[in-house]
Amino acid sequence: MISRSRFRAAAIAVTLSIVAAVPARAQTGSASSGAQPDREGNFGSVRLQPDRDPAVDDVPSFGEILTGTLRAFQHLPSRTNFELLALGGIAAPATHPADSETSRVLSGSVALDEPFEAGAFLGGTPFQIGAAFATYGLGRAFHNSRIARAGADLVQAQLVAEALTMGIKQATRRARPEGSGYSFPSGHTTVSFASATVLHRHFGWKAGIPAYLAAAYVGTARIQTRRHYLSDVAFGAALGAVAGRTVTLNRRHGVGLSVAPVNGGGAVLIGIAR
Prior knowledge:
Layout: H1 4-21, E1 46-47, H2 62-72, H3 79-95, H4 99-107, H5 113-116, H6 119-122, H7 125-141, H8 145-172, H9 187-203, H10 205-224, H11 230-246, E2 254-262, E3 265-273
Antiparallel strand pairs: 1-2, 2-3
């Protein structure tokens, strides 16, 4: 059996690997660029901080994280979210016929008991929300606005994921494979994929790949320990992606303004980074 101390050691190792994967640009943003006159003293082109990353601006307070979570629910209805939920809605019934067999094969292998035992800890709410607050706190402590902003989004993603999961569980009331509680969807899988999506959207695939692999490990572990079926995990992954994407909708977008001379006058150009 894996002790609690070994669980914590595994959790720390996963966290450090994700932090190490964050690219160098995660340091506090570069200085803004102002308009420069030409040799005649004229301002031919004015750019209003076009290269500034919105992710380093306006790090929220704890209270603002909570109010931002409530506002995040307003962003749930979106085309991409509907597509993700539709994908999960297709994957769940598609994998349903294999639920019993998958559960039997994974849980029936004694050799898999120890390797997957840590999944319950890594995907649990205490670790996930604790890691989110730790990321936020470290970002603020070291004056790294980008990390602090990511931590704030991780906290919000956890709260949104938990709310969505509990609502669906109460609506479906599907029994777990071992007979207790509610199974659909997998909460551990949902919160794990929510965190992975936030890390991916903030720092790209370099952080996203290990985070998604960790989330997939958690989902597999929930099947192996007979806490969830394959279809629970499939829908939980999609639901987690929705939660993570919802709280980061405005993180990947920036607006730049510039004034360019044209024949007979000037033009204001608006650039939107996506």
